[in-house]
Amino acid sequence: MRPVSSLHLVLLGLALANMLPAMEVESSWGLYAIAVGCAILSTLWLQRSGGRALSGWMIHFAVIASVGFLCWEMFGEHDEPTIHIVDLSHFIALLACIKFFECVTYRDAGLIAVIAFLLMAISALISASPLFGIVIILDLTVGVGWLMSFHAERDRYLVESRMVQLTGCEPVVVSSNSGPVRGPAYSRAVGATSLYLVVAATAIFIFLPRGLYGGIFGRMHGLVPASVTGLGDAVELTDAAIFEDPTPVFKVRFSKAGIPIVAEDYAAYLRAQTFDRYYQGKWSGTPMLMPRTILPTESEYPAALVELPVTPLPSSLLKQEVWLDSLGNGTLFASYPPIMIETKYVKGLKLDRKDLTLEAAGIRDTAHYAVYSLDTQTGPAAEALTRHTHPRRRINSEIPVRVRLFAGDLALKFGDPGDDLQHATIAGGIRDYLSGNEFEYTLRRGAMRKNVDPIEDFLFQNKKGHCEYFATAMTLMCQSVGIRARLVSGYHGGEFNDVGGFFRVRQRDAHAWVEVYLAGRGWTTFDPTPAAAVATRARDESLIAGIRRTMDFLHFKWSTWVVSFDQDSRQDLAAGVKKWLATFTEDVDETRSFGDLIKTLAYGPDVFVWWQRVLYWLVLILCAVLVVLVLRVVVILSLYIREIVGDRGELQARIARRPEARFYDRLLLLLATKGHVKPAHVTPREFAEQLSQSHIDLRALSDYTEWFYEVQYGQRDLSESRWQRLRQFLTRLREDTAFGTRS
Amino acid sequence: MTTLSANAQSHSDLVTKLKALRANIESVFIGKVDAINQMLVGLIARGHVLVEDVPGVGKTVLARAVAKSIDCRFSRVQMTPDLLPSDILGVSVYNDKAGVFEFKQGPIFANIILADEINRTTPRTQSALLEAMNEAQVSVDGRTVRLERPFMVIATQNPFEFEGTYFLPENQLDRFLLRISIGYPDREYERRILREQPDRGALESLSPSMTGSDVLQLQALADAVRVDDVLMDYLQDVVDATRKHDAIQVGVSPRGALSLLRGAKAFAVLHGRDYAIPDDFKSLFLPAFAHRLVSKSYLHDGHTTSTEQVMLDILENVAAPS
Amino acid sequence: MAFFSRRKSRGLRNEGVRLTRGGAIFLIGILLIGLTAVDADINLLLLMFGFCAGAYVVNAVYGWRALRHLSVRRIVPESVIAGQPFQLRYIVSNQHRWAIARSVILEDVFPRVPKRDSPQAFIRSLRPGESITLNVPFVWQDRGRIPLFAVRFISRFPFNLVSKAVRLRTEQELIVCPALGRLLIDPASAARSPEASAGASATGRSHGDDEYAGIREYRQGDSIRKIYWRRSARTGQLVIRETTKIVNKQYWCAIDTRSSARDRASSMALEKTLSAAATFICTALEQGASVGLVCNGDPLVILPPGTGRAYRPRLLRELGLRVGDHEDSLAAHIRRHPWPVRWQAPCVLFSPRDDEETRDAASCLTRTLGPTRVIVADAPGFAAVVSLPDPTTTRSPNPDADGRGRSAA
User: Fold this and answer.
1) Is C8 at the interface with chain A, CB within 8 A?
2) Contact B315 A655 (CB under 8 A)
């Protein structure tokens, strides 16, 4: 491989690109700069020295230095525990830098390609950024083209050098009747290959099973940030980063005593679920105790959720009209405490008497309900409620010791935890402490550390986190000092739509806060998350922000559909496909004409927006390519199998050689060893005539051929004397090496 | 194992008669054995034969020899440009005395017809002859008269004549089973000709060595010849090759393949066998196919010899059964 | 006349796909990655596994169409000398309608030759309908007949993970003539046996077919009839017209190929004999003489003296086809055969060993054909007559082995 050819430069570029995702995870930009510098220097060096690599001792020195660096990284003193595989990626990157200087032969170039591949594999383990996807696309286009050229060059070089070695001259193309070459050499091949690769990889990606983890390699999930804002059944504090999901969840209109609330910054806390018990980074929800079925069937009339002896005043009731966008898991959202519910689209409604959370068994697509919640903590209704919602038995969370001690110290600053009446101040103080300047709200808090409780990490080390961390911290601290507190998840905020007069609530508005039981006031809402979190949600209309939102959106899609694609995603995908097929077959049932059917199949359902349609076509094309690929594989396999197994039988059937006539095959074989090969287009008789004339020994061949004809085509049998003669002749041919070679 | 339709006794009779027939013909026609064989193949395979060659090599002699050696009616038609179809088929003549139209049979009502210089007559007459050949019957005056079997037409044409000729178009050439090319005789044969100076007398004094019914029996024998599947494959391979060759516009039609099959069977019978061998097929490919192929560079002059080269090329490239 | 044969791709035996060495190693790595990905549920790793597995599938599936529709025609040179490189010519054409054949390696299947050492050529790309002519050099060290059966097309496009091969039958035969060396003596002197009188030709009378060669001064003993009187009168010194006799030089090359195939020394002696004979023949033919060949064995070869460009390959082919392993007596054949007078000429007998038979044959030859000189392969004087390239040392061509003889003296 001649140095500084275009192949060489492309290789260096690709290697640097493949290093990027691995370096980006730990932001090792210094190392990356070293790599870029090495690439440039090596190009200049190889150009100047006419293709000679660096001298041996320099290479050895560099390798030893890299090993030393690796050891220092792995075992040296650090504040944070390191992830060894990242160190390994640094080491391999350094090896690549050394190899840049040594890239003279084809084998060296192959080694650099292998190193780049290893770095991509490592970055697949540790990185989750869309940079990986971008580099993959680069590899698919430029990388595939490079591989093709590289291997073609290498093959050519190997063949020619072998021929030169054997004979001293190389093979030469004398002439060819081709015209001038139009276009780049491999463009068509690269296009087809990339398409096949994408389709094959996507098919394997979707269809391979998930969830078989737990084996030898353990679960490496902690390295990969993989979640989104939104609600789930559990709250888990494990993620290094969260992406904002703009999917809309529901629309809500607030009104009080008939007057709609239209203030843009009005933000109500709409609860979904409560969690009481914390264990090693996870909050588990309490199962519904004594759920009460409110509405077994649809009903037109409002139903009371809580039986109060006193009817609350309309002015103290906050009416929330909610239109749900998707079914979700049946949770209904309402502000605390919900008193009445009015809907006819919900059935099987269940209410937890203590936690006052709502769950519906059946919700129609166009689910719409209205909940009336008490908006005040004073008044006879509120007092009645307080008695009604006395907390149940204490449920113990496992609070880390350090947190418990710290909470105790902190609480003492605000009051006496033993005194029930001071709980309010203590809770407020804790809330202020957390939402103060010491802690920072961020969605991306960095990689998790092993063997450290997330809350400890949050409170004492890395004082950054999102709402779940703040809420968890407050809840745990309250629980440590004996204040009854629970974590609540739900939605807070939303975008006010002037036209409709409602708030559009999205997944990114999901929030976690705390409810503390205060004597005399009941469960009170506390939100320890710094107020800046809400402020940052204000919509920024500038172009940069728009680009940022688009990038975030793409990043989000990458995370959900590639990085965290699991069984559930697969089931969602399957469900989506089934849903589309269902709508399709419904159309079929409506007796549409065949042409319309084809049109729907090709054009997509009518409900599609333009970009959805483009995606749909893309999916169709990819499916077609997949089908083609599978067909080709099947064809090749079947050919192969037929070659091994069936073709022999076919061949035999074709010839249908009678057993008596097999002597002719033996005869042909023996003649071939003497150098008389029968060309395929010559009949046996012609062959015999040729040989009989030119070779004295083979004079009798014509007779034998006529006998063969009799046996094979005339289906007669040979007499014994003729067999004898034949046998003699064949024996003579076989034994006597000179017999039959010359006239 | 196929049994012959005739019993063994008459089979050997037929074989002897064939030998005598051949000897008979060879006594007056001194030339290539291939030509004689091919003519006899045409006879036994119930086909018609086109003899295409330069003048003076013995086309007429051969045809007459064959006709004379078989005890049957022979007629010769010299195709001139002014020949009318009725001159071949026959004409209805009003018989005054009887008061009816009598059909006077034309020369086509014979067993072996020699149509000399078929390319010199008008297409109308050509097609009249060829129709009769194809259907073995003549419809005249509203009646159809069947032609007597055995029925064979030997047509001759001179390929190098261009003035005033109407060469047979391809679809009509297709009706001829074989195209025989006699060629100049070998030196020794020519020497014999020069020495013996055979004249008309010898031809006239030929006595038949076979009857028409013998010929019919031979034809039945040919139908019963056993052809192996491998040979069928070979035939079809060659036919496929002609259809796919670069230089050929129109390959061999199924009628052509069928003709070759019949010819190969007749060839086997001619050599006294009741089974076909690959050489039967191979030796007949050229005569049977060369005139059915239309080459891409076909100049409309009726030249059929350029396809021979292509045919040879194809034969070289198709694997023969072994 | 070059030998060639042509075979289309239909009806061939497909050799199928095979993992290359790099492909096998990579496969192990990929399987590890795949297991890790499935086990630890890492999606990006699974994606990478998908791409790599897809690369295998693509490599095995892509590029078959054109490969299966390649046709090749091999043209073999008419005479091949052992130890000298020759050119095999291949005409490869792509007969598919639209598929391009890429990165195809053409490999000729030689019997008993490992794949690495067989003649190979690389075709970068062959577009539909395109045909390309390749000259591939090759060298063969042993004399004899080589049957060639097949040509193989191998393609590892695009990733070199899986190799697809297709084999086409093209049957031909290559006859390798014995290796040529250098004749260290003049053929004329080689043919002249030491026993024959040296002055015999000098006393021979000229038969009138003389050629004028120049004027030189008169020396004692020259024929007086040759004196050119006019010039002598003018210059005052006696000069004669010198003529050279046009002699139709003719030699016989007799070879005794008695040897035993089982005995290695005897086979090697036979090869040396044949090489020496070939060298002699070539040198003599280069000088314009006619050379005849008589050789025992099965069958007996007697080729009358002939000259010209076409004769040399014929003679060498016969030598190439010689098979030892018999005890046929050359003398017996010589005695039995009638030899016409016009064939009488000096003779050189090459023999692998010097024994009773050889001497017998030499005397027979002397009686029937002419003065015979015996050159024995095993004898110590052999190296002074012919210098042959050593077959065991190098595989590269010997640049001197072109059959040109040079006089040592």
Assistant:
1) no
2) no
Largest CA distance in chain A: 131
Nearest CA in chain B to C6: B317
Give yes or no: residues A19 and A148 share one domain: yes
Contact list in A for residue B235 (CB cut-off 8 A) is none
Residues of B in contact with A681 (CB under 8 A): 315-320
**Beta bridge pairs of residue A526:** A514
DSSP characters over A663-702: HHHHHHHHHHHTT-PPPTTS-HHHHHHHHHHH-GGGTTHH
- Residues of chain C in contact with residue A212, where contact means CB-CB under 8 angstroms, are 38-39, 41
**CB–CB of A510/A489 below 8 Å?**
yes
CB atoms C8 and B317 under 8 Å: yes
Nearest residue of chain C to residue A114 (CA atoms): C26
Architecture of domain B1-224: 3-Layer(aba) Sandwich (3.40)
Average pLDDT of span A225-236 = 58
pLDDT reported for residue B284: 92
Inter-chain residue contact A715 with B319, CB threshold 8 Å: no
Distance from CA of B76 to the nearest CA of C (A): 48
Domain at B226-322: CATH architecture: Orthogonal Bundle (1.10)
pLDDT value of residue B259: 92
- Closest by CA to C290, choosing from C251, C232, C325, is C251
What percent of chain C lies above the pLDDT cut of 90?
Answer: 7
pTM beyond 0.80, yes or no? no
CATH 3.40.50.300 residue ranges of chain B are 1-224
Among residues A531, A534, A515, which one has the least CA distance to residue A336? A515
Report the gap between the CA of A174 and the closest CA in chain B (Å): 25
Q: Does C329 score more than 50 pLDDT? A: yes
Least trusted range by pLDDT, from A460-464, A602-606, C68-72: A602-606
A570–C contact, CB cutoff 8 A:
no
Rounded CA gap, A685 and B281, in Å?
12
With beta carbons under 8 A apart, name residues in chain B contacting A684.
278, 320, 322
Say what the pLDDT of residue C7 is. Answer: 31
d(CA C25, CA A57): 30
Predicted local distance difference test score (pLDDT) of residue A396: 74
Q: Considering chain C, what is the average pLDDT of its residues?
A: 78
A387 CB within 8 Å of a chain C CB: no
ipTM of this complex prediction, to 2 decimal places: 0.80
Q: Contact, A711 vs A665, CB < 8 A?
A: no
Q: Range(s) for CATH 1.10.8.80 in chain B? A: 226-322
- For residues A269 and A122, membership in a common domain is answered with no
Q: Which amino acid is at A9?
A: L
Counting Cα atoms < 13 Å in the Cβ hemisphere of B265 gives: 22
Strand partners, A193: none
| pLDDT single digits (tens) C368-409 | 888 888 888 888 878 878 888 776 554 433 333 333 333 333
**Homologous superfamily in CATH for domain C3-177:** Immunoglobulins (2.60.40.10)
- Which of A713, A715, A716, A717 to probe the B interface (max B CBs under 10 A)? A713
pLDDT at A541: 59
Q: Which residues pair with A317 in a beta bridge?
A: A374
- Inter-chain residue contact C6 with B319, CB threshold 8 Å: no
Model confidence pLDDT, tens digit, residues C272-290: 889 889 988 888 888 888 8
> Which CATH architecture describes the domain C182-194+248-387?
3-Layer(aba) Sandwich (3.40)
Query: How many structural domains comprise chain A?
Result: 3
| pLDDT tens, position by position, B165-184 | 677 777 778 889 999 888 88
**What are C52-69's pLDDT values in tens digits?**
999 998 888 888 888 888
pLDDT for C9 equals 33
Same domain? For A193 and A263 the reply is: no
